[in-house]
Amino acid sequence: MPNRSLLFLAVLCLVGTAACASATQARPTPETTSGRPSDQPQRIQSIIADCMKQKGFKYVAWVPDPKIDDEWKKAASGDYAAMRKERREQGFGVFFLLAHPDRKQVLWSETDSPNFAIENELSPAQQTAYDKALTSCKAQAVKQVTGKVVKSDEDRAEQENQMIEQTLDRELNGDPRLVELASAMGDCLKGKGYRVDSVKPVDMSHRGWKEFEEQKKRIALNDDIPEKDLPDGKYIEPRLAPATARQYLAKEVRAALDDLECGKDFYAAYMPKQNEISRRVVQLFGGVELA
After folding, report:
1. Whole-number pLDDT of residue 26
2. Torsion angle of C-alpha atoms 192, 193, 195, 197, degrees rounded to 10
3. Which of 19, 21, 94, 130 has the fewest CB atoms within 10 Å distance of its CB?
């Protein structure tokens, strides 16, 4: 599912550092009965800083402060006018950055963290030790604040994404109103000549994105960039000239606008529910909400 369809996302890495090792800290008693969910990221960072200090490393408690404009939030909440404006330019968000590489936007970067400079000054051996200690401290902090047991940033991301998918399936695919709207959207798209394999609400929400993402993946797997040592299902972005990518984007935009016209009522009802679930899971893992 495309990230831009979620208003609330977790900070999967609490600080920008290199790869993490397995956590080895003892499991302290959870503190899940105190503090507001919005306070959790700062509490996690404070515990990490104390833990790193005990291990002999300097670390500054730091929580990203992403800035999201109102139009993005409106589009992510299912507002028709905002979604149409976004889709007219970006389609489903698949080929857009390949067509316009200069338009890349990041909410925050690892270089924004003061800890990036701290670790960058260490020797390679010290950096390895720093990363190992940080992974352990992150695991301890997340466990202490949320009660969640995570082994690494990657493990945390996998658990979080899995919980979001399971909750969406359980709560939204069984919602009678969404089922009705998704079915009507599917009929409309079929009438326009589009392929619709499933009219489950969750499937309909990313049907168009998935179609063009699969197309981009096929291009990537057949270009001259070898896909070596990558996890299953992962690939390196294809090497496309912007002019060529814009041709793919033009088709994507047309499909995205048709998708929106057929799903105008569906998205208005679906997106707020999806965002609420995403926000709920983010809070469970002590992540930062986009606001």
Report:
1. 29
2. 60
3. 19
The pTM assigned to this predicted structure is: 0.81
CA gap 92, 209 in Å, rounded: 5
Euclidean distance between CA atoms 138 and 152, whole angstroms: 8
Single-letter amino acid, residue 141:
A
Q: Percent of the chain scored above 70 by pLDDT?
A: 81
Buried b or exposed e, range 159-170, using 16+ CB within 10 angstroms: bbeebbeebbee
Contact (Cβ atoms closer than 8 angstroms) between residue 42 and residue 141:
no
Alpha helices, H only, the chain: 40-54, 70-76, 80-90, 96-99, 114-120, 124-146, 153-172, 176-191, 201-205, 207-221, 242-262, 264-284
Q: How far apart are CA 132 and CA 18, in angstroms?
A: 10
Residue 288 · residue 15 · CB < 8 Å? no
Evaluate the CA torsion angle 268, 269, 270, 274 in order and state its sign: positive
Nearest to 277 by CA among 140, 175, 144: 175
**How far is C-alpha 121 from the geometric centre of its chain's CA atoms?**
30
For 176-191, write each residue's pLDDT tens digit: 999 999 999 999 999 9
Question: DSSP readout, 52-112?
Answer: HHHTT-------------HHHHHHHTT-HHHHHHHHHHHTTSSSHHHH-GGG---S--GGG
Q: How confident is the model at residue 229, as a pLDDT?
A: 64
